[in-house]
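User: Can you recover a sequence for this backbone? Please restate the input before giving your answer.

Assistant: Of course. Working from this structure:
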């Protein structure tokens, strides 16, 4: 299972290679559907001990001589070293495969997307030898797909809409539209979309909870291990949330002052065993802060 939003941003193109066609359509780019798409090895390491790996690499083949490569990079923050790496990737790929490479950068916030989209001239001031010109997708140009019919027409693009808008409030509506759309999608396809959507949300805890609930209720008939794992995460999160509420309830019932800082520390805890320990201590603690300190005599 994909474990981070970084992985989701590029791996969705591996599992759903037709997604590039959807991206091209919404950005009004002159790419036509290829005859075939091949997922290629991502290792760009040379014989010398310098390891470089592109996140995802696809080969698009057309009838005739229209083949090209798409190197997909997930970028979560500005990185001054990246343009040089990206230029290396494109040069190496062009040398190795002898067909044109295209760099697609996926971002989850506007400042990073605007930074990544800059054209970077490479060469002395007097003469530019190369120019790096990435194609960038992010919240600045990906549509907010909040209509179930639109999501049903291209579930992978709807999942990318979730991923690129994961840090924004509009993601809630996209999630609801996507869950409705997936009711009519075969489980083999839906399982992949469910996974990348869950991981692409990243650190947006509210959106993650919404998606877990939607998977548990609207998509409960899906029995794939991915869906079950997301439901298990939701059940675990529910137990953690109840555990934190129990600790706060006992402290408040005993009339102990719970500062905002202590409340945040308790609600931020995701360890059920630790919450049980705090709950036990809350019954006898002289102050709310004492639950974090092991009493004399504790084993």
């Amino acid at each position: 299972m994909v474990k981070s939003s970084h992985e989701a941003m590029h791996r969705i193109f591996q599992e759903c290679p037709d997604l590039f066609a959807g991206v091209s359509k919404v950005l009004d780019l002159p790419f036509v559907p290829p005859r075939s798409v091949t997922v290629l090895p991502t290792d760009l390491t040379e014989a010398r001990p310098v390891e470089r790996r592109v996140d995802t690499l696809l080969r698009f083949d057309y009838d005739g001589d229209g083949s090209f490569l798409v190197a997909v990079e997930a970028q979560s923050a500005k990185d001054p070293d990246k343009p040089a790496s990206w230029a290396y990737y494109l040069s190496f790929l062009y040398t190795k495969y002898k067909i044109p490479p295209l760099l697609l950068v996926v971002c989850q916030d506007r400042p990073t997307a605007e930074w990544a989209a800059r054209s970077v001239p490479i060469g002395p001031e007097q003469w530019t030898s190369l120019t790096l010109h990435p194609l960038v997708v992010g919240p600045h140009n990906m549509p907010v797909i909040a209509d179930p019919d639109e999501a049903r027409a291209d579930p992978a693009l709807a999942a990318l809409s979730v991923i690129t808008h994961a840090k924004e409030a509009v993601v809630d509506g996209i999630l609801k539209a996507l869950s409705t759309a997936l009711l009519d999608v075969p489980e083999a396809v839906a399982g992949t979309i469910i996974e990348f959507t869950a991981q692409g949300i990243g650190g947006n805890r509210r959106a993650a909870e919404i998606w877990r609930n939607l998977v548990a209720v609207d998509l409960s008939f899906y029995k794939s291990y991915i869906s079950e794992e997301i439901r298990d995460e939701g059940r675990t999160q529910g137990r953690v949330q109840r555990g934190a509420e129990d600790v706060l309830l006992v402290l408040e019932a005993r009339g102990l002052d719970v500062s905002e800082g202590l409340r945040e520390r308790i609600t931020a805890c995701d360890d059920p065993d630790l919450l049980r320990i705090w709950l036990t201590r809350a019954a006898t603690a002289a102050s709310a802060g004492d639950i974090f300190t092991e009493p004399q005599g504790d084993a």
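That completes the design. The chain is about 50% helix and 10% strand.
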